[in-house]
Amino acid sequence: MGVRIHLVCHASTDAVRAARFAADEPLDEIGARQAAEAGPDVPRHDVAFCAPSVRCRSSAEALGLTPVVDPRLTGCDYGAWAGRSLDEVAATDPEGLGEWLAEPSRAPHGGESLTDLVSRVGAWIDGPPGEGDGPAPRAVVAVVDAVVVRAAVAHALGAGPRAVWRIDVDPLSTTLLVGEPGRWSLRALQPGRG
């Protein structure tokens, strides 16, 4: 059966609702309520992880999890674009935006490239998660940013970093990857509440 990795996207924030590049913001009121309501739906797991951001830690707590905070699950660093909308970036840095959209290995915003993000997230998945802490877990749940879910799916399917923006991930959605390092299958993409 292999390892089951359930990737839960954090609950909604103001940045999500306004379609801005993520900064480290808290959940909005609706997101906090929806995460608390979703708690009973969290998949069974041997170990829980979450990204270090406020939004991921708050989501995990509201879901009733006591996760290990893992910096390898950090969302993409958008550098100078963090907190800004795509339209704002297009108006102030059209060349940088065009470069970033055309070439996933570039990071004109001064943060992390999509290529580096997919590589980092793929290394976490292929680790396997929890390695070195006793036997490898059979079922993992991780609360992460939508872009981390996208990167994980792109890695698992061998689709490359260009696929990251072709995967829709809703707040509080759950994505299930099943397999083993280097051989993953996408089992399910379940919509969220946001």
UniProtKB/TrEMBL annotation:
<dbReference type="InterPro" id="IPR029033">
    <property type="entry name" value="His_PPase_superfam"/>
</dbReference>
<protein>
    <submittedName>
        <fullName>Broad specificity phosphatase PhoE</fullName>
    </submittedName>
</protein>
<dbReference type="InterPro" id="IPR013078">
    <property type="entry name" value="His_Pase_superF_clade-1"/>
</dbReference>
<dbReference type="Pfam" id="PF00300">
    <property type="entry name" value="His_Phos_1"/>
</dbReference>
